[in-house]
Design brief:
With about 425 residues, the chain is mainly α. Helix content is about 75%, strand content about 0%.
Length: about 425
């Protein structure tokens, strides 16, 4: 019989898949959509990159509060509240107004802290040292299926369009909100994690809110966590790049052809293919590999894949691509849509390498402090993502790629140093490797 906690992980992954089918699709096209709204409504002065920066800034600040909140309400209610904020943010696009856009961005940032820290805590509660890698891989693969469906909708609805009219926008928004609400219902129906004897129990933290906050501060200051934070910063920079900047850059490159806007959606699909394959390969099928060799080879592979994609993007897309429609070209003339989609795939596959191993590390090594560990992960990742969306409005594509290369190398090295220390210690309670 399938263990109850494994079913819990499937329900968790399904809920996140649906919610982020909506949000990741919207994030991928937000700047493109807002550019079209401005043409229809000149009084609207909102900016997609600024909205995303506000979201991640609010998320980073809220992460210091979420351990205390989770100690009071638990991870299941926290995820439900967080999911509601995602639906509210998407609904705000029906009424384009700068104050509403940025206000809902702040609310979403706070909600995202709840949903992600709650997810990490709940996943940890549903896992043990033998199942954390498997469960992390299942969750990650299901989550990244979200990259397919919404972006396929965008691919077909944006077909042949150089301007996204109001009717088309509303069709996309309506579909995304409906899917997000179904995901919200799934998260609201999550069951209590089961004990080792498969007896359902109500899992609550004995730690008081103030103690949870102090524990998070203490954990953040440890050498091991500070090293991991370099990796977390890199995952935040790469996340903001491929989820917001890269797709818009493809759509703004006129030399790709009249189908450039269409490729914004297809870009998300190829990122999703890489993410899902990486989740399956390194989260599930790679369990024996990590058992023999550790997590570091997977992260090194991810780093190499990302470096290769950055180099190809540098050759393929013009420096001015993130700022708006441009006729400029780079070294590959004309820019290749095939190369752009290949880079999307590599970005997704490399991201899966990093994130599955970060989840495995946090859920295994920091099993006794899951809320604190995952809140620190999301804090550092979100600070980096917010900073990235801020400088994306001012830095050309090539400067952004240089930043990613430098932090990618440093993040890979720092993760490996922590993994080497963990393998050297190999305490019985933290060992997750299967012989």
């Amino acid at each position: 019989m399938v263990e109850k906690n494994f079913v819990n992980v499937f329900i968790l992954g399904g809920g996140f898949m649906l919610i982020f089918t909506s949000f990741q699709t919207l994030g991928n096209i937000e700047q493109t959509i807002i550019d079209s709204i401005k043409k229809d409504l000149p009084s609207f002065t909102g900016d997609g990159y600024t909205s995303l920066a506000i979201i991640y800034a609010a998320l980073s600040l809220s992460n210091w509060v979420t351990p205390s909140v989770l100690s009071a309400i638990g991870p299941r209610l926290a995820m439900t509240i967080g999911a509601i904020t995602y639906c509210l943010f998407m609904a705000s696009f029906f009424l384009p107004h700068v104050a509403l856009l940025y206000g809902c961005s702040i609310v979403l940032g706070a909600g995202a802290a709840l949903i992600w820290t709650g997810q990490g805590m709940y996943l940890s509660q549903c896992s043990n040292s033998q199942t954390i890698s498997r469960n992390s891989g299942v969750f990650w693969a299901m989550l990244q299926l979200s990259m397919f469906f919404g972006n396929l909708l965008v691919f077909f609805t944006f077909q042949g369009k150089t301007h996204i009219d109001e009717q088309t926008r509303n069709v996309v928004f309506s579909a995304l909100i409906a899917v997000g609400i179904i995901g919200l219902v799934m998260l609201a129906c999550l069951r209590h994690p089961a004990t080792d004897r498969d007896a359902p129990v109500e899992v609550t933290s004995p730690v008081r809110p103030k103690e949870a906050f102090l524990n998070a501060v203490r954990l953040f200051r440890t050498k091991r966590m500070l090293l991991l934070c370099i990796t977390f910063v890199y995952t935040g920079l790469s996340l903001s790049f491929f989820s917001g900047v890269y797709g818009s850059s493809i759509g703004f490159t006129n030399a790709i052809g009249t189908s450039a806007k269409q490729f914004v959606g297809l870009n998300g699909v190829f990122i999703g293919v890489g993410e899902v394959l990486g989740g399956v390969a390194f989260g599930l099928l790679g369990t024996k590999l990590t058992g023999r060799c550790g997590r570091d080879p997977v992260v090194i592979v991810g780093g190499v894949l990302h470096l290769a994609s950055y180099f190809l993007i540098y050759l393929n897309l013009p420096n001015a691509a993130p700022f708006g429609n441009t006729d400029a070209v780079s070294y590959i003339q004309p820019p290749s849509a095939v190369a752009a989609m290949a880079c999307s795939f590599l970005l997704g596959l490399g991201d899966a390498c990093f994130n599955t191993q970060c989840y495995s590390m946090l859920g295994g090594v920091f099993k006794n402090e899951p809320a604190e560990a995952f809140s620190i992960f999301k804090f550092t990742q979100s600070v980096a993502a917010a900073a990235s969306f801020v400088y994306s409005s001012y830095c050309g594509l090539h400067a952004q790629l240089i930043i990613l290369v430098v932090l990618g190398i440093l993040g890979t090295i720092s993760f490996c140093l922590v993994e080497f220390a963990v393998k050297k210690e190999r305490p019985a309670l933290e060992r997750e490797y299967e012989k």
